[in-house]
Each structure stands twice: as structure tokens, then as C-alpha cells.
Design goal:
With 453 residues, the protein is an alpha/beta fold. It has a domain at 29-259: 3-Layer(aba) Sandwich (Aspartate Aminotransferase, domain 2), CATH 3.40.640. The chain is built from 11 helices and 13 strands. The protein has a 7-stranded mixed beta sheet with strand order 1-9-8-5-4-2-3, sandwiched between helices. A 4-stranded antiparallel beta sheet has the order 10-11-13-12, covered by helices on one side. It has a two-stranded antiparallel sheet with strand order 6-7. Helix 1 (29-41) runs antiparallel to helix 7 (253-284), helix 7 (253-284) packs across helix 10 (409-424) and helix 8 (330-339) crosses helix 10 (409-424). The longest helix is centred in the middle third of the chain and has 32 residues, at 253-284. It is globular and about 75 Å long. The relative contact order is 0.17.
């Protein structure tokens, strides 16, 4: 390998054929056969396979009830309705997340209240929750962001103290553990996206979990009219027959069939990814300017700790410490790593609290911003628009690394060498660095480090 940076004319650090190193999901003959059976039977809109998928997933995660959806956004909306979130309520949600963690609250007449994130986990910061609680607060949405479990001990304590509901958005963290317990089993309800790019990918789909029969039946009532025969609660039975939210949330059975196979294969796939990603992080531990975002070694199973893991590492992120590289911009650093043949994409999700959807936009024609449209007329939007310093700076401080799907040490070593090479020769990049202070990220989730074709 040449010592000269590839960006400046040297040879690339990554030279091996990547093959299926980033291909996802891993489609087997079993997946194909399962999908074909549904297709040939013309049962794409049926329920039998979907109900089987729900049953098996609920059993695997350890929850009483599961309800499958056409996508993860619908699952979050159904969970919010199931939890009783409605007109005039406030829902506390982290600013750094995919928009579906917050925007569905508008549909129910509720108001998102944004909290800052912890700079080390990029999950909601428990220290920024309690002072945001008002008599209108109904729930806290906890996003296990980029596969990193949130601090559930602290969050559950706050929720219990103030009698608030917890909705876990687990769309980034399928199979992750918090102190030995699987995420999605802490809150009053949990919602997962299962779309093609997610860790547990089954197609375009989502799922809701709960142990509360009322939450489950309210969600059925809201968007699963064809299943209203499952409603048993006396107070809900009179409303059965039509989708009471006006939504049709049924999951496509091609996805259900694919999902049943995936549930069996995922633990082994997840273990392979976890091994590969921790190996990559271990190779780069101690490198100047970068820090892997993962549970510390004392919390990881291999160290005999409390067993907190990242599952299958969806959206793997590192922190960037520009001060250790004499102020080299993240964009210039990333450009150099990519030139070496590896993956290094600046940023993550942009902060939601600064987007016009949550500041000025009148979505439904109320005559004032939708954020406050369901609150008292005297409420001013300025009360809900504030600065969140970590969220507003995070896209200059994090980047995405390769999401390896297989443990192949030689290839992983090459990618780590690409980073080490750039870090070793970073001074050669300073003279032409014109992007200092530039911000990256976007409002949609990124897929550049994974093949989803």
C-alpha cells in the first residue's frame, strides 16, 4: 500500500473484491420460495401468514401482542393512538431521529416537544426530558438511534415519576440489548420499521408490540378494520366495523412470508454483523480524531459486562473529533477516506426542531402553525421553538462507517487501514481544506454504506 493518500495520487488502501460484503438483505432460496407460494396462491392481501409472523415475532421478543403494519411510520401512528395520544397532548421526542418518530403526532392533534440528544449515544438525553414535562405531556418517544440503546433506566424512572407512557421507536435497533434485555420490551408500546434497508428487513413493513390489551385493541380499531372481530373490550366494541382513524394499515403478505424466514435467520446474521463491526471498531480504537459509537467494553457481552449491544448495527456511526486533527473538516476527512476505497459519509439525520414543519408550517389550514394548532389560542409558537445545542452541532461531529454484513477480517482490515492512512497523513489535507464548519446530514435515512438493490 502506498503511503501517499489516494486523494493526492497514491494507491487505494481497499483493494480486495467486496463481493456481497454490503449486500442487504441476504436473500436465500427459502425466502424466494416463501414469497412465491404466497404470490402463486394470490394471497398477497390475506391475513393468515401475517398473523403467524406476528405470533412468531412476539414470541421471539417476549411480548404479548404484535400487530403488523404496511410500514414503520404507520406502526408508530397506530402505537400513538393505542396509547391514547390525542387532541392537545404533548409528546416528548428527540430532535435527532427520522421524521416518523414525531410527525404522526400531528395526525392525532398532538404536539411534538423536542429534547436534545446525548452526544455520546445520539439517543434522547434523559437530563433534557424532565423540565419539558407539562400537564399536557402524555408520552415520551424513545428512539434507539443508529442501533444504540437509549438510557432506559433513567427514562423509565422519569416516566414512572410523572405517570407518562413510553413509546419505543426501535426502527434502528432490531435485536439490540440494554443490560441483557431486548429493546422494544421496556415501553408501554414499541414500533419497528421492517423496510428493506433496516437491520431486520422484510420489505416495506412495520410492526407494533405491547403487553397491554387496550393498546392493542385501540390500534386494531384505528387502522385494521378487517380484524375487528378480535376486539373484546366492551368500550371499544360499539365502534368496530370501520377503520376509526380512516386508515388501512394491513401488512402485505409477501413481506410477512419473507419475514417468517428472516426471523429464523436473523440471530445468526446479527451475530456475524456484530462480530465484524466490533472487530472494525477494535482496529480503530485509540486512533486520533475518531471514536466508535458503541456500548463501552464493560457493557458488552464479550467482556463479561452487563450485556448492552447494538444488535445488527444499523447506521453505524463514529464521532469525529476535529480538534485532534488540527481542525480538519469532516467533509475533507471523509473525502480522503472515500478516495481510499472505504465508506465515510458525514452526518446523520438533521435536527427536526429547526425544520419549518415544526416551526411555521400550517399543514391543515388552521391559520397558525400546526405545532400549536391544537392548543389554547393564547399559545405562541415561540414557546416551542428553542435551541438544542447538541442536536444542532451533531452533523459536524459524526460520520457513517462501513456496515459489514460478514466477518471477513482481511477486507475489514483494509477498510480500517484506509482510516488509519488518512489519520496518519491528515496534515497533507489541511492546505486545501475549504469546508471548515460545513454541515452534512439530511432528513431521510442514508443507505450509501449498504447495498439495498
Amino acid at each position: 500500500m502506498s503511503d501517499t493518500l489516494a486523494l493526492l495520487g497514491g494507491e487505494k488502501a481497499v483493494t480486495s473484491e467486496q463481493a456481497d460484503m454490503f449486500k442487504w438483505p441476504i436473500v436465500t432460496k427459502r425466502h424466494e420460495q416463501a414469497v412465491l407460494e404466497v404470490l402463486r396462491a394470490g394471497q398477497m392481501s390475506g391475513l393468515e401468514i401475517t398473523k403467524e409472523f406476528e405470533k412468531e415475532y412476539a414470541r421471539a421478543i417476549g411480548r404479548k401482542y404484535a400487530l403488523a403494519y404496511n410500514n414503520g411510520t404507520a406502526a408508530i401512528l397506530g402505537a400513538m393512538y393505542g396509547l391514547g395520544i390525542g387532541l392537545g397532548h404533548e409528546v416528548i421526542v428527540p430532535s435527532i431521529t427520522y421524521w416518523a418518530s414525531a410527525a404522526p403526532a400531528y395526525t392525532l392533534g398532538a404536539t411534538p416537544v423536542f429534547a436534545d440528544v446525548d452526544p455520546d449515544t445520539i439517543c434522547i438525553d434523559p437530563k433534557d426530558i424532565e423540565h419539558r414535562i407539562t400537564p399536557r405531556t402524555k408520552a415520551i418517544v424513545v428512539v434507539h438511534y443508529a442501533g444504540m440503546p437509549a438510557d432506559m433506566d433513567a427514562i423509565m424512572k422519569i416516566a414512572g415519576k410523572h405517570n407518562l407512557k413510553i413509546l419505543e421507536d426501535c426502527s434502528h435497533a432490531h435485536g439490540a440489548l440494554y443490560k441483557g434485555k431486548e429493546i422494544g420490551t421496556f415501553g408501554d408500546a414499541a414500533a419497528f420499521s421492517l423496510m428493506t434497508g433496516k437491520s431486520l428487513a422484510v420489505g416495506e413493513a412495520g410492526i407494533l408490540f405491547t403487553d397491554d390489551r387496550e393498546v392493542y385493541e385501540r390500534a386494531l380499531l384505528f387502522g385494521h378494520y378487517i380484524r375487528h372481530d378480535e376486539i373484546t373490550l366492551k368500550e371499544l366494541k360499539p365502534f368496530a366495523g370501520l377503520p376509526c382513524g380512516g386508515f388501512k394499515h394491513r401488512m402485505h403478505q409477501l413481506s410477512s412470508a419473507f419475514g417468517l424466514v428472516q426471523l429464523e435467520l436473523y440471530p445468526q446474521q446479527m451475530a456475524q454483523i456484530d462480530r465484524a463491526m466490533n472487530y472494525f471498531c477494535d482496529l480503530l480504537d485509540g486512533s486520533a480524531g475518531i471514536r466508535p459509537i458503541r456500548p463501552p467494553s464493560c457493557f458488552r457481552k464479550k467482556a463479561g459486562g452487563t450485556n448492552t449491544t447494538k444488535g445488527a448495527w444499523y447506521l453505524p456511526l463514529f464521532k469525529y473529533v476535529t480538534e485532534e486533527l488540527e481542525g480538519l473538516s469532516l467533509s475533507r476527512f471523509s473525502e480522503a477516506v472515500r478516495a481510499e476505497g472505504s465508506i465515510c459519509d458525514p452526518g446523520c439525520n438533521k435536527p427536526l426542531h429547526v425544520h419549518p414543519l415544526f416551526t411555521t408550517m400550517d399543514v391543515y389550514g388552521h391559520g397558525r402553525p400546526t405545532r400549536i394548532a391544537y392548543l389554547d389560542e393564547s399559545t405562541k409558537i415561540e414557546h416551542y421553538v428553542e435551541r438544542l445545542p447538541v442536536a444542532e452541532s451533531i452533523n459536524r461531529r459524526v460520520f457513517q462507517v462501513p456496515w459489514f454484513k460478514h466477518y471477513r477480517p482481511k477486507i475489514i482490515q483494509e477498510h480500517a487501514d484506509a482510516y488509519k492512512k488518512v489519520i496518519s497523513d491528515y496534515r497533507e489535507l489541511l492546505a486545501d481544506d475549504t469546508d471548515r464548519g460545513a454541515e452534512a446530514g439530511g432528513y431521510t435515512t442514508f443507505f450509501s454504506s449498504r447495498d439495498t438493490t
